[in-house]
Amino acid sequence: MKTKFLLIIMSSILIGNSYSQNGQIISRDTFDVYEHPDVLEIIGEKSMSGYIIHEEYKWVTEDIVMEEIFYMSDSLKVKAYLAYPKDKMANPSVIYNRGGNREFGALNAKKMVLVLGRLASWGYTAVGSQYRGNDGGEGVEEFGGTDVDDVLNLIPLLANLPQADTARMGMYGWSRGGMMTYLSLMRTCRMKAAVVGGAVADLRMMNDSRGGEMEKYVYSELIPDYENTKDAALAARSAITMVDKICKKTPILMMHGTADWQVIPEESLKMAEEFQKEKIPYRLVMFEGGDHGLSEFNKEVDEMVKNWFDKYLKEGMALPDLEPHGE
Questions:
Q1: I want to staple 247 with a disulfide (CB 3.0 to 4.6 A). Which of 105, 189, 227, 299 is the partner?
Q2: Are the beta carbons of 76 and 139 closer than 8 angstroms?
Q3: Which residues pair with 85 in a beta bridge?
């Protein structure tokens, strides 16, 4: 059974729109992996007495804590997932930005364990937002509009957690979450490192490459007043149009599959060209024949992500020298 171990409801929440401040946690529930057979089938084996967790996944039940939380963002109650080590230390922190839109691509039990939980097993406090309007949250997401605030408001949330060290903070996003990462990095230089995979950088290019379906089923339904503000709305969400605004102090690891049809690899290739011009520290890795989720390269991706965050968040490596040099 889930254990409700914290519930903070201020009287102001009950009066109109007078909500608590951004990042404040409103409720926390423990996440019990034993209540999710779909995850147990991946990390364990069924026996007469229940599930036996495989040795390589012992950390799920022995080393980390996982929670489902609601927090405040722009006077809205928003759902998020949280995972951290049991060591009770202030660990480096990672904000994870999910992909998709609405319920498609939302954080779920598998992602809680295999993404946020895995980050926690590496010694990080990890948190990811469902974005406003999803999974019981208030408001309506805008696919890169005001919902970017839901990402940035995780910074004060982490600052109030004893398990999180916000002086050593990174960001990790996949697909639409890569777009959210780029947009966030235009508004903060707090991130010591960032990782994006199959990242959306140009909404027009994505729509064209998918025969107009993104405009029909996503942009027109989620972006406010889309028909009257189309050009401006797409530009404001496409990092490729304003790379000069991205923080130059955040080294970015970019990963993309060359067989990705959902977000074509040219989006990351063109971003890398712009990063080069703007002298933004980056590493671009193109995985030969990789799909959108790089499912053929899971272990290699995990190693790269862990090494990138360890290097900049734990070891405190200095930014690289981007000026031409060498013999």
A1: 189
A2: yes
A3: 64
* pLDDT of 49: 81
Q: Which residues pair with 254 in a beta bridge?
A: 196, 284
Please name every residue paired with 30 in a beta bridge, in sequence order, or none if there are none. Answer: 67
**d(Cα 290, Cα 151) in Å, to the nearest integer?**
28
Report the DSSP beta bridge partners of residue 93: 125, 169
CA distance linking residue 143 with residue 150, whole number of Å: 11
Domains and CATH numbers, the chain: 75-314 (3.40.50.1820)
According to the model, what pLDDT value does residue 20 have? Answer: 54
Q: Is 126 exposed, middle or buried (0-12, 13-18, 19+ CB in 10 A)?
A: buried
- Span 263-314, pLDDT tens digits: 999 999 999 999 999 999 999 999 999 999 999 999 999 999 999 999 999 9
Q: Does residue 258 have a pLDDT over 90?
A: yes
Q: Is the pLDDT of residue 18 over 90?
A: no
CA angle 174, 97, 139 (to 5 degrees): 130
Place of tokens 């590493």: 283
| DSSP-derived secondary structure for 203-261 | HHHHHHHTTTHHIIIIIHHHSTTHHHHHHHHHHHH-GGG-GGGS-TTS-EEEEEETT-S
14 pLDDT more than 90: no
The two tokens of residue 10 are 């201020």
CB contact set of 156 (below 8 Å; sequence gap of 6+): 21, 22, 23, 24
76: nearest Cα among 137, 156, 136, 153: 137
Eight-class DSSP state of 317: P
Report, in angstroms and rounded to the nearest whole number, the Rg of the chain calculated over CA atoms: 20
